[in-house]
Design goal:
Layout lengths: L4 H12 L12 E5 L12 E5 H8 L3 H9 L22 H21 L7 H14 L1 H11 L4
Antiparallel strand pairs: 1-2
Length: about 150
């Protein structure tokens, strides 16, 4: 018996969380068929994305083309979204863009080159904070540079 849209959507969101796998948005989440086949409702062919990212994927937007071509499904994140804390971060746009570009262009490329594709953005955020916790001297150095003290 064929699965209807609400069934596979519910199953995907229950298994993978109601958060966009591209930008981490939690509003207007829909389910994307990775291989483009709407009849293939296997869980490994489904991924939650926000409506904005979904439109860009199907619009062949340059920023999403590589992500779409490389995405082959997910094994699931190291921890469930329910375990994740959502804390505000106050940061200037320039610094956020540099961080986000580094994740998108450098970190994800290195993970892809290592044939590692089954990760979630929140795992990258956690790894970022753990690196910062392990190297407080780098935080102090960067802080002093920002303040013009170095």
């Amino acid at each position: 018996m064929a699965m209807n849209k609400s069934d596979y959507r519910e199953r995907c969101l229950e298994a993978k969380g109601e958060q966009c796998t591209i930008c981490d948005a939690t509003e207007s989440i829909i389910v994307h068929h990775i291989d483009g086949d709407r009849e293939n409702n296997d869980l490994d062919n489904l991924t939650p994305v926000c409506r904005s990212c979904h439109n860009r994927i199907h619009g062949n937007h340059p920023d999403y083309r590589e992500w779409y071509e490389k995405l082959e499904g997910e094994a699931g994140p190291a921890f469930a979204q329910a375990e994740a804390l959502q804390k505000p971060i106050y940061i200037r746009e320039e610094a956020w863009n540099e961080y986000d570009d580094s994740l998108a262009l450098d970190v994800r490329k290195k993970l892809y080159d290592m044939d590692f594709r089954d990760y979630d953005r929140r795992e990258l955020h956690e790894a970022t904070l753990l690196v910062a916790a392990e190297h407080p001297e780098l935080i102090v150095e960067k802080f002093l540079k920002i303040r013009g003290e170095l």
